[in-house]
TrEMBL record:
Co-factor requirement: Mg(2+)
Protein name per Swiss-Prot or TrEMBL: Inorganic pyrophosphatase 2-like
Record-listed substrate binding positions: 20, 95
Record flagged with keyword Hydrolase: yes
Species per Swiss-Prot/TrEMBL record: Juglans regia
Location of the active site: 9 (nucleophile), 11 (proton donor)
Recorded superkingdom: Eukaryota
């Protein structure tokens, strides 16, 4: 497995909309949603909205069908498949919920690419009502972060993800996201990691004004095409390093990022399959 962990936000990063808003709008309860919004935290409101759909006769199947049509750029599908094929450890960190994410990833044939989905848990109760629970049980104690919603602090989960990685053979982390909570996750990145904030989204604005707080290298992206190009360019040097048993520094990796396409196309087939050592440029 290449020494890279890629952590994706889900809504407005993998999916090109908010899955919560998509379901609420498509299944015709936007007005009710807006009416309740000032009274409930978002996560509790989504659970309440699922009850509303259930009482209006909408089934789990209706919700799943609706999710399958949510917009997902094909370049993001190919980026995820390529990163997985390169041996990266792919994970999700999202404030949507398990049912929405599983349904969408399965529909696009992506679920097997991920080793872990960190999100609000969900289950279907005995009456067929989709229940959505908070990731952190905030009724007992607060996570203490003022920039994240009470149900999920992405910074805290990033710390857990890092702590779960094997101590030997340090892994580098690439984080992609769009929201304020994704910035909180970005604050936990270290030197050698990469933050990919979506341009003109909240994370990008905050990153621009708080650049000195981020230890990782920052690469902004606009759309699926950008995401694919930048992500694969970041991953490639790690892949080359592992494949040809080359160790390099962060600076070397930047050179490798430029050179690796040349290297892969110029290595004779018999060498490409062996564990040969290439000189680091
Ligand atoms: C102004 C404003 N009010 C409420 C919300 C809440 N919210 C909207 S969509 C969503 C799911 C994000 O999933 P993911 O983490 O996958 O992007 C959440 C928690 C917001 N983002 N902005
Ligand atoms: Mg998002």
């Amino acid at each position: 497995m290449a020494g890279v962990v890629v952590v994706f936000d889900f809504d407005k990063t993998i999916l090109d909309c908010d899955s919560d808003n998509w379901v609420v709008d498509e299944l015709g309860i936007s007005e009710l949603f807006t009416q309740f919004l000032p009274t409930l935290p978002w996560n509790s409101l989504m659970d309440r909205m699922m009850m509303e759909l259930h009482s209006r006769g909408k089934t789990i199947k209706d919700i799943a069908e609706c999710l399958k049509h949510a917009p997902l750029n094909p370049r993001i599908i190919s980026a995820i498949k390529s990163a997985h094929a390169s041996g990266c450890d792919l994970r999700i960190l999202s404030d949507a919920n398990a049912f929405f994410i599983d349904t969408i990833l399965k529909h696009h044939g992506l679920i097997e690419c991920f080793t872990e989905i960190n999100t609000n848990p969900s289950f279907i109760d005995e009456e067929g009502w989709l229940r959505i629970l908070p990731y952190h049980d905030f009724s007992s104690h607060s996570h203490g972060c003022s920039s994240c919603p009470p149900n999920l602090c992405k910074g805290l989960v990033m710390e857990r993800i890092r702590a779960s990685l094997p101590a030997e053979g340090k892994k580098n982390i690439i984080y992609l996201g769009d929201g304020t909570a994704d910035f909180c996750a970005g604050l936990k990145l270290e030197e050698g990691d990469f933050l990919m904030p979506r341009k003109n989204y909240p994370i990008w604005e905050i990153t621009c004004t708080n650049r000195s707080l981020i230890k990782a290298k920052v690469h902004e992206w606009n759309d699926g095409e950008d995401l694919e190009t930048i992500l694969l360019d970041l991953i490639n040097p790690f892949f080359i390093e592992e494949k040809y048993n080359v160790r390099s520094s962060t600076t070397d990796r930047m050179v490798l990022a430029v050179e690796c396409k040349f290297l892969t196309s110029s290595i004779p087939a018999h060498e490409a399959s062996s564990n040969s050592t290439l000189p680091v440029p």
